[in-house]
Amino acid sequence: MYASMPTFLEDRIATFSVEKVQKAWGGRNIFHGATPAADALHLSSNDYLNLLNEPVLIEARAKEFLHAERELLMSAVFLRGESPISRLEDKLARFTKFEGAIICQSGWTANVGLIQAIANSKVPVYLDLNAHMSLWQGAVSAGAKAIAFMHNNVSHAERQIRKHGVGILVVDSVYSTNGSLCPLTDFANLSKDTGCVFVVDESHSLGTHGPHGAGLVAELGLTSKVHFLTASLAKAFAGRAGFIACPSIFKDYFAMESYPAIFSSAVLNHEVAWFDKLTDFVVQADLRRERLHSVTRTIRNALSELGYDLSSGTEQIIALESGTECQTMILRDALESYGVFGSMFLAPATPKNRTLVRFSVNSGITDNDVDRLISVCSKIRHEIKLDSWPRRKARGVVKPPTSSSSAVPRDC
Ligand SMILES: Cc1ncc(COP(=O)(O)O)c(C=O)c1O
């Protein structure tokens, strides 16, 4: 006998099943696509430098597992003195050229914990409309007013700050839904001019961009203008943790004020060993970075020529934005029928009716993989009715929608 659920929750789950699964998705869960075959081309992993299966890194982690000294399992707030975590923090601070760094349990907890610890009901948080959900949740957790500005629009951000007052300005360096690049220098200058705290989420550029992978803030010489740099280490760093680069003086404050640091246990030594070794590997990985960027360029150029509107993206995250959830399921099914697997992104990760399939490119993709992807995207254009997709700009060989090929969603 299981506990029965109260009506308010039963109704909520039933609404999901009816409104979403039955009505909007034609009876299928939108995330349940085909099962990939052994030769599938996977473009859904964020392991941008293809490091997850690197033997030398696996060995470092295994060694720590096998020969670990007695380890304490507790929240970071209780950590004392030098430890594997504090040594990794120092290493990552040097790597990003910041004074200090804090290791968190994930990119999510880094962002939620940071914004919660620095904003409050009197300190507004200004966020790019496409900023990662964890940054918005930080504002919620702080009880702060979250004020949106249009994507990458510095003058709109400035108008919002002048209207609502000094606060915290938050951007991603590379946006996770469509791979667009933030004009970081302009935002850094805006934060300086207005007296705002400047927070940059470098999850999708740390390791992949900048000198030896040190990120875009380092590349653009903005370290002295960025107060906090955050990152998920579940992208190019191929593990499970997050990180904040910050002034040294902030570290003790964060440990005592940030809920995830107090109320959730710290990462373990075998995870630290992985990141320690991996940081050295990333520093040396210029060839992988070059490969990542050149594969990205080739795929982007080819897909644009085929008529796909890749919106304003330029980096290794490539979004095929097809419009409604139904249309995107048709796109996903078509890609998967040829063995190409990306990730579905829908509201609340995207605005409503701007659903997309996201390809995450990595440096291990071969020329054959690239040819295969391009040929599949070419073959399916008719099947997915590419010429009926809503688009921000008409490009390439496919004509913009007309009344006869209007963007009417087909049945799922
Ligand atoms: C920009 C950005 N920030 C933060 C996160 C959260 O990272 P994690 O998966 O380590 O919690 C993600 C992951 O989706 C992300 O894309």
What portion of the residues fall into strands of 2 or more residues? 5-15%
- Bound compounds: pyridoxal-5'-phosphate
In CATH's first tier, which class of the largest domain applies?
Alpha Beta
Side by side, the strands of the main sheet go: 2-8-7-6-5-3-4
Query: What string gives the helices and strands in order?
Result: HEHHEHEHEHEHEHEEHHHHEHEEEH
Oligomerization state: single chain
Envelope shape: globular
Low-confidence stretches: 393-410
Classify the helix fraction into a percent range.
40-55%
Number of strands: 12
**Main β-sheet: number of strands, strand sense, barrel status?**
7 strands, mixed
Fourth-level CATH superfamily of the largest domain: Type I PLP-dependent aspartate aminotransferase-like (Major domain)
Name of the CATH architecture of the largest domain: 3-Layer(aba) Sandwich
Tally of structural domains: 2
Gyration radius from CA atoms, angstroms: 22 Å
* Annotated CATH topology of the largest domain: Aspartate Aminotransferase, domain 2
Instruction: Give the termini distance in whole angstroms.
Output: 37 Å
Report on this model:
The chain is of the alpha/beta class and 412 residues long. It has 2 domains: 36-51 and 286-388, Alpha-Beta Complex (Aspartate Aminotransferase, domain 1), CATH 3.90.1150.10; 55-283, Type I PLP-dependent aspartate aminotransferase-like (Major domain) (Aspartate Aminotransferase, domain 2), CATH 3.40.640.10. 40% of the residues lie in helices and 13% in strands. It has 14 helices and 12 strands. A 7-stranded mixed beta sheet has the order 2-8-7-6-5-3-4, with helices on both faces. Strands 9-12-11 form a 3-stranded antiparallel beta sheet. Strands 1-10 form a two-stranded parallel ribbon. β3 (125-128), α5 and β4 form a beta-alpha-beta unit. α6 packs parallel to α7 and α12 packs parallel to α14. The longest helix has 20 residues, at 286-305. The two termini are 37 Å apart. 45% of the residues are buried. Residues 393-410 have low confidence and may be disordered. The structure holds pyridoxal-5'-phosphate. Pyridoxal-5'-phosphate binds next to α4.
